[in-house]
Design brief:
The chain is an all-alpha fold. Among the domains are: about 275-395; about 405-485, no CATH class. It is built from 27 helices and 4 strands. The chain has helices spanning about 5, 15-25, 30-45, 50-60, 60-65, 80-95, 100-125, 130-150, 155-160, 165-175, 185-200, 205-210, 215-230, 235-245, 250-260, 260-270, 280-285, 285-290, 295-305, 310-320, 325-340, 345-360, 365-370, 375-395, 435-440, 445-455, 465-485; strands at about 405, 415, 420, 430. A two-stranded antiparallel ribbon has the order 1-2. Strands 3-4 form a two-stranded antiparallel ribbon. A hairpin with a 7-residue loop joins β3 (about 420) and β4. The chain is elongated and about 95 Å long. It starts with a helix and ends with a helix. The structure holds zinc ion (ZN) (2 copies). One zinc ion (ZN) binds near residues 423, 426, 446 and 450. InterPro entries: Znf_MYND. Keywords: Metal-binding, Zinc, Zinc-finger. It holds the Pfam family zf-MYND. One of its GO terms (molecular function) is zinc ion binding. This is MYND-type domain-containing protein.
């Protein structure tokens, strides 16, 4: 037994604590004030070994367990509640200053667990006797202590092996969704345990789970992105596996994407490129890209990934695993099928231009050049350099204007400027024919922008679709000119 717990015998405590301890343990009228004295003492110079026995005994739930075994248990007694809450507070304080050997907590934590389990059961049978305001402080204290212990060996094994723990932690998490954004509660250590319980044991848990709250999907998505994704690829992978395999969760997947899943995974791959299969998870988590291409959302996600450092992540993964078949295969696919689609999308090209130089310098490593990925990378860089030329041409104020590209995006025919038909209203948009003019007007694209162009208002910088169509026409024009040496 740990030496601290040998002090359980109250007579072994130092004389100055003896009465305090005795009273606290009895739960007499002065129990609460004595505990408060202990709490203050602890904040000063009191040794944890003098305090722990009191905590341990005070945290013993058996008196109230006996009282509650009748059909109609008494309301939760306030005096007892206060004592337990102070104990939890003291525990939390001690955890924070690491004044207590971690082994001691393997004795204290099960007591906390018993209490929370007891309170939840009490709540189930008599919700009117144990309200939300009673449960919440227990829950917060328990989660904080548990999260701390789960982060360390060997207490993690003890906690994970405790029967009923995962169910309990999942349940109390669900009961207090307002705490998920509480920066003081270190949820990320508990994330994998929650995901195990909620998702892995039974994927339908997720459906019940999100149905339990109004807007619960969005809250859960925030939780995954904020607390689980930044922690480790190991945490993300099992959750993603379940989400991707369950058709019913497509909508949830879309919400995750909207909440920034792709940047989170990209950063993980950059951080853990040396971790086996990290790349596989990133690529598999791009479901819209593995289906027929969905414009323009998929392009938007590629842009987000580029912004989060996708190019560097690719090079690092290829450098660290030059011959890892799975990683290389996924990356080759990415470089050959996904990224080339980004070359006509203005925000993606802008992002490529910002990160390419650094990625190319990383790619100079000998290990990367020997990698099976290198030919695919070189092909991508050639494509990217083309895109950068488009971008430079697009940004040139003195662009030659001898030719025009038909404004109908379905047509994009190039013809001498003199032979085009212009929009009679704005006189700025050129078409190869009246048919194309009508199509561009009817599908709403030009109808929306014509008035602004006519009144000489510059299209809003947020109007990406107009600018991107302009970029697309510029690419066509550039290639036409280049092919003819103009
Ligand atoms: Zn017009
Ligand atoms: Zn046309």
């Amino acid at each position: 037994m740990h030496p601290v717990l040998r002090l359980q015998n109250i007579e072994q405590a130092p004389p100055s604590y003896r009465n305090t301890l005795r009273d606290a343990l009895r739960g007499g009228p002065r129990a609460l004030s004595n505990l408060q004295t202990l709490e203050r003492g602890l904040a000063g110079r009191a040794q944890p070994k003098h305090v722990l026995p009191v905590l341990y005994a005070t945290l013993d739930p058996s008196p109230i367990l006996d009282a509650s075994s009748s059909d109609t248990p008494p309301p939760f007694p306030d005096s007892l509640l206060d004592r337990v809450l102070i104990c939890i507070g003291i525990l939390a304080t001690m955890l924070e200053d690491s004044r207590v050997p971690s082994e001691a907590f393997s004795f204290i934590w099960p007591r906390l667990f018993d209490w929370v389990l007891f309170i939840e059961n009490y709540h189930d049978s008599h919700p009117d006797l144990v309200g939300r305001e009673v449960r919440r402080p227990f829950f917060v204290g328990f989660v904080m202590a548990t999260a701390e212990l789960v982060a360390h060996e060997p207490t993690r094994d003890m906690i994970e092996a405790t029967p009923g723990f995962r169910t309990l932690i999942g349940r109390i998490w669900l009961s207090f969704p307002e705490s998920w954004d509480d920066p003081d509660i270190p949820w990320h250590h508990l994330g994998i345990l929650l995901m195990d319980n909620l998702l892995l044991q039974d994927p339908t848990n997720l459906r019940d789970f999100v149905a339990a709250f109004d807007g619960g999907e969005s809250q859960l998505a925030t939780f995954v992105i904020k607390h689980i994704a930044p922690a480790s690829i190991e945490y993300v992978a099992p959750a993603m596996d379940v989400i991707l395999k369950t058709q019913k969760n497509q909508r949830f997947m879309a919400i995750l994407l909207d909440h920034g899943l792709i940047p989170a995974l990209t950063r993980l791959v950059a951080l853990y490129a040396s971790q086996k299969d990290a790349v596989k998870y990133l690529v598999e988590s791009f479901p819209p890209l593995s289906r027929p291409f969905e414009m323009p959302r998929a392009l938007h996600w590629i842009t987000q990934a580029l912004k989060a450092g996708l190019l560097d992540a690719i090079v690092l993964a290829g450098t660290n695993y030059p011959n890892h078949a799975g990683t290389i295969e996924y990356l080759q696919w990415f470089l050959a099928h996904v990224l080339p689609r980004a070359r006509v999308y203005l925000p993606a090209v802008v992002q490529i231009s910002r990160t390419l130089e650094h990625a190319v310098s990383l790619a100079a490593a000998l290990a990367f050049q020997k990698s099976l990925l290198f030919p695919a990378w070189k092909a991508f860089v050639a494509m990217a350099e083309d895109s950068l030329q488009y971008l430079a041409y697009y940004s040139r104020p003195d662009r030659p204007r001898s030719v025009q590209v038909c404004y109908n995006s379905q047509c994009l025919k190039v013809l001498p400027r003199k032979s085009t038909k212009r929009c009679p209203q704005c006189r700025l948009c050129h078409y190869c024919s009246e048919d194309c003019q009508r199509i561009d007007w009817l599908d709403g694209k030009h109808r929306r922008e014509c008035g602004d162009l006519y009144s000489n208002r510059v299209a809003s910088p947020d109007d990406l679709s107009a600018r991107n169509r302009d970029f697309l026409r510029t690419i066509v024009e550039f290639e036409y000119m280049r092919d003819r040496g103009m």
